[in-house]
Amino acid sequence: MRTLGTELKSWLLGLTAALQFLTRLPVPVQIEWTPAVLRRSLAFYPLVGALLGYVLLGSAWLLGIVLPELPASVLLLCIWIGLTGALHLDGLMDTADGVLSHRPRERMLEIMKDSRVGAMGVIVCVLVILLKWSALYTILHSSGKAACALLVLVPVWSRAFMTAAVAFWPYARREGGMGGFFSGGKKPFAAAAAAFAFGISLAVLGIFQLLGRQIPYDVLWGTSLGIVWQVILTAVVLLSLTFAAGWVLASMIARKLGGLTGDTYGALNELLETVLLLAIAALVQFGF
Hints:
Shape: globular
Number of domains: 1
Distance between the termini: 53 Å
């Protein structure tokens, strides 16, 4: 029978695994990467995203003090990539090389395992980085800094969908791989991650209001609703946009590969971050 202490320890191990796997932040703890620990780590992906988001927000503030928006946005993107060790960009390039080769399924999977980067991987990576940089520049250049609240939530929701990708699509490689480490029931942890991301969104949006960094919700909803309902609706829109875009992308990739792989999880994260950043940039264009 599991005691409260044992249960708490298992969840702390899951949090540690999520931090060590998804970031390059120093977490000097040795843990055993068992399937049970990795399954629990899925629930903490949005929390890791929130940590990254606040590091990015603080970095944006510091860079904005000493630099114009253009070089500040480039350096902010460098920090973003460095925090993850380019883990997800690597997955994006491998996925692009395989999926866009238009070869048979098994050949696509072989290409994705190749450590060398092909032309399609480079092209897609450059395009994604350019889109992210231009969106960050738009956000930093905006007269109102309320968009920074949504900037914090970008890595939260992209990682929340990663858990859904792990849980709801089969693993494509018969010989196993990273996705095979998450063996066992994963859907409850993916559901917990989505709920966690929703709660983090409510907290972040609410905190910005309390701190006086007023978010112009009237751009989204008009002025007829109270702030509480506007915060809730904004969180619902973030959830809906992320999961709608993620479901389309994951389904397209899985149709070609017969499932998803570790590389495609990283690709989905990068693509969803790009989608969310472009959505925030579009709101800035309309006065958010």
